[in-house]
Amino acid sequence: MKETDREAVATAVQRVAGMLQRPDQLDKVEQYRRREARKKASVEARLKAAIQSQLDGVRTGLSQLHNALSDVKDIQRSLADVSKDWRQSINTIESLRDVKDAVVRHSQLAAAVENLKNIFSVPEIVRETQDLIEQGAFLQAHRKLMDLECSRDGLMYEQYRMDSGNTRDMTLIHSYFGSTQGLSDELAKQLWVVLQRSLVTVRRDPTLLVSVVRIIEREEKIDRRILDRKKQTSFVPPGRPKNWKEKMFAILDRTVTTRIEGTQADTRESDKMWLVRHLEIIRKYVLDDLIVAKNLMVQCFPPHYEIFRNLLNMYHQALSTRMQELASEDLEANEIVSLLTWVLNTYASTEMMGNVELAPEVDVSTLEPLLSPNVVSELLDTYMSTLTSNIIAWLRKALETDKKDWMKETEPEADQEGYYQTTLPAIVFQMFEQNLQVAAQISEDLKTKVLVLCLQQMNSFLSRYKEEAQLYKEEHLKNRQHPHCYVQYMVAIINNCQTFKESIVSLKRKYLKSEMEESISLSQPSMDGILDTIAKEGCGSLLEEVFLDLEQHLGELMTKKWLSGSNAVDIICVTVEDYFNDFAKIKKPYKKRMTAEAHRRVVVEYLRAVMQKRISFRSAEERKEGAERMVREAEQLRFLFRKLASGFGEDADGYCDTIIAIAEVIKLTDPSLLYLEVSTLVSKYPDLRDDHIGALLAVRGDASRDMKQTIIESLEQGPTQALSCASS
Predict the structure, then answer these.
(1) What is the CATH number of the domain that holds 674?
(2) With left for phi above 0 and alpha for psi between -120 and 50, is residue 306 left, alpha or beta?
(3) Mind telling me which Gene3D superfamilies this protein's record contains (predicted)?
(4) Do both 565 and 713 map to the same domain?
(5) Mean pLDDT over all residues of the chain?
(6) DSSP state, residue 411
(7) DSSP category for residue 483
(8) Confidence band for 515, pLDDT divided at 50, 70 and 90
(9) What is the average per-residue pLDDT within 124-133?
(10) How far apart are CA 439 and CA 449, in angstroms?
(11) Is 155 helix (H, G, I), strand (E, B) or coil?
(12) DSSP secondary structure string for all residues of 423-441
């Protein structure tokens, strides 16, 4: 206590010191004293109130404890009295055992009397019930059946209470009411028939379906009541519980499964489109059934049955099972596509589960997949494998058909612009388009895979196409009279290369997303190179055809016959122009290159005639005449190829300028200027070789051996590379 007082004094000193830190605060001492007095009075008042409240609570608790003690003593006395009375009544209870037995017998007899009328009328009720079932009056029949079962169960229960071990009497009662179970089974059979046709019944006679549901509900209530009584008495009447509600859903489930399986009307042998028809019938039936269930059946069943949700699950499960069965069959490629399109797209589309008439009860986002991802993956693998084999076979067949066309006696068809073509590109890319359109119906991923497959097979196909074009050329060279339209079909082959290029680009642009195009292009071998090679070899074959006809006339160039007035160049020009009238049916990219190549080769052959020293001029007059002829013929060739190249916007006059430059060397009359003229030629054409210069001087015919040697040695100090155009 003293310690508390000291702490209080110390605290007070601190507070006073805190309030009187400045001299001017001494004037407020009285004010501080009054404020502290008020705080003290307030604290004391709250303390007194708290103590008073505690005292009141203690007083109340003591009063309640006193009352409880009195109650306990009263209860103790009452229990003592009850115990005394119970001991005194034991003998009395024993003396009333006979009365108890009499009460039990009376209860049984009362039950027998109560059911006496029913007992005697059992055969009649059975007949009436049977008639009502046959007439379809199921509610009345069920009412009578309930009366029969109630009488039987009541008697059997009383017998069970009196003597549960007496099986003879129980068997007697059961046999007397033996027809009751048969009636129950017959009624159930009729109810199941109605339920099996519930989707039809609900539209024609919904009252009948409602009656069936009411009967099932009654039986469910009886089952629940009997199971509750079983917990108390362990007695269960025969045939219980019936579980008709559970059986009802089982019947509906079997009905749905049978309906799905029964939609297959055809087989692959009888109809190639059997699966498409089968799936379409399933779609129509399921959609119609669910719409009926949503709009009509839900009105015939209690809400807690959740009939629409249950039917939806049944249809989904039946469909899943059926799709698994179909997937396990040995399906063809088009059948796999039909199945996957239906499963992955049609099922959740507005044509089926996403139909507005099923909303909002059916949410397609919550539906489980009809086929597992593994099964879908296996089907896709099978489809890709089959499609690969089919595309290879289709491409081989298309090429064989095209090869037969090459042998025809008639010219190939021309497109709208007049260019020769065969049907091969159209057939190939129509096939690719069809497969890509089908794949696009299933998924974007499959579409990309099919596109990659098409491009891969196209690459292999073009290699075979190149080989066949080469064989076509070789066969023709064995007998140039056959095939009759060789040139025209070779033109068509060249044009096909351009068509293939354009079709490949179009195919990628149409079926490939822009962000994937680069990766696909990088992963795919370049087909442009193969197509350019085929076209180049085709153009070479046609030019070879031209130069085979020109061979004799090219051989006359720079000969004495030529100098004396040969018309070889005239024939060459006429022949080339005639061929190029056919070559006009070649598409521009290749025709342009082919014209330039023909120009180059004609000039090369002309220069080769010079370098082969077929003639040696004997006089200045011959040199002048020969040189002037060369210039005229160069201009003639220039005019021809300008005409052939018109519209290409390319100038290839430099080829003919070479002939004119050589003619200038031949035409030179002053031998002393020969070195200067030759050096000018070499500077203009730095790939001129020593043997070329020697041949040129030999054609002039006036250069001595020493002059040739001097000119060549003087020129060796500059670049002396080979003249490519005259060395082949």
Answers:
(1) 1.10.357.70
(2) left
(3) 1.10.357.50, Exocyst complex component Sec6, C-terminal domain
(4) yes
(5) 82
(6) P
(7) S
(8) low
(9) 77
(10) 9
(11) helix
(12) SHHHHHHHHHHHHHHHHHH
